[in-house]
Amino acid sequence: MLIQTRDNTFQELLRALALVLDLEENRKLYHAWRVAALTDLMLDNIGWKDKRDIHYAALLHDIGAIGLSDHIVHHPSLSEQLANPHILNHPVMGARIISAVPCLKGAVGYVLDHHEWWNGNGYPHGKQGEQISIGAQFIRIADSFDVILQNNQGQISRAEILRKLQKGVGKEFSPFAYQTLEAVLHTTDTYERLLNSETLLEILKAEEALCKWTPGENNEANLDTVVAVFAKVIDAKHAYTAGHSLRVGHYATQIAAQMGLANSEIKKAFIAGQLHDAGKVAVPVAILDKPARLTMDELKIIKNHPVLSAEILGGIAGMAGILPAVAHHHERYDGKGYPAQLTGEEIPLLARIIAVADAFDAMTSTRPYQATRSFPEAMDLLKRNAGTQFDPVVVETAVQSLREVEVNS
Ligand SMILES: [Fe+2]
Ligand SMILES: [Fe+2]
Ligand SMILES: [Fe+2]
Ligand SMILES: [Fe+2]
């Protein structure tokens, strides 16, 4: 195995992906984590065997809503959801995204139905009653639970949330889902554990340990598919970055191979390249698209993204090897970069490679407020900045290896 595939790398990667879905201006909402943990506890309560598919559906239920300008929890009313095409389509979109990962096939139906209402007023298909699976019924009410919590900034009592949810019984929720939720939350202890991010993570880890994967599922090919989905999710926040993460992964791979690095390092370059901007999801579109000069505060938010990327991916023990590359991809060879102002060879080699791959893609793809450069222009710019912004050896190698990109494109 090129990347250390401990048994739980796959679970940790999916958990990190769910966290990225909930980044909001350098704040983590933990919506996906909380919906998954609560759904798990409800399934435990009724003695449900084999929770895996429902667990992962709950964890990724809103993956189809990633391109929204703000998080979907800020749109709680059904009429508003039905009037917004992006929201209306997010269960279908989410189901489509998840079906790209072979071992998550069993989760697709639950994601598709997580906004169906017991009385048939939900979407996308207006299913009702027992047409809706228990898993989708549970995710529905766990989702509403957290939306209420988020919209009250966590300052709401357990009894008050239950009162609000009870009003939806027979309409949005099945009586059974509500009874089960009430049974799970009958003590304040569980409620408080769900509210605190550390205890929430403990619940998730304990539940994940019960989810079983066959060796055929927990393998590198499946891991690669999730990394590719992850890369798409990162890019989906900002329309003009479509394909950026994957391209940086490919360019970094080509440079690393041309430099003669070991296969394990080349693989790390590919994964780190695809995930380097994970923390950028937290940067509001308004800041990235701002035509005017950025304020100090806005710059601070942008400059925090490599640190945030490393923090999010730091939860994946089996991928610890890519963290230095991710954390330092905006350092400059002359020490004027960020976040740590490392100089020259102090900067991890893979980070120096990704810096060049990243800049090359930014130059050659279409971005607002920046002219797209031709291949020779981009090469020229890389060379002119060798020794100041970039490692000259990496630039030299890139000039040779990325030539093939031009030929292939
Ligand atoms: Fe949703
Ligand atoms: Fe949700
Ligand atoms: Fe970046
Ligand atoms: Fe980037």
Descriptive terms for the model:
409 residues, 2 strands, mainly alpha, two-stranded antiparallel ribbon, binds fe (ii) ion, elongated, 22 helices
Characterise the protein shown here.
This protein starts with 8 loop residues before the first helix and ends with a helix. The chain has a two-stranded antiparallel ribbon. It has helices spanning 9-21, 31-45, 52-59, 78-83, 85-98, 108-112, 134-151, 158-166, 175-184, 188-195, 197-208, 220-236, 244-258, 263-275, 285-288, 296-303, 305-313, 323-327, 349-364, 375-384, 392-401, 403-408; strands at residues 23-24, 27-28. It has 22 helices and 2 strands. With 409 residues, it is an all-alpha fold. The site of one fe (ii) ion has 5 residues, from helix 13.
Can you count the helices?
22
Principal-axis shape equals: elongated
Structural class: mainly alpha
Q: Give me the strand/helix succession.
A: HEEHHHHHHHHHHHHHHHHHHHHH
Show unreliable segments: 1-6
The averaged pLDDT comes out at: 92
Rg for CA atoms: 22 Å
Distance between the termini: 31 Å
* Cross-sheet strand order for the largest sheet: 1-2
Largest sheet: 2 strands, antiparallel
Number of strands: 2
How much beta, percentage-wise?
Answer: under 5%
Measured as a percent range, the helix fraction is 55-70%
The small molecules bound here are: fe (ii) ion
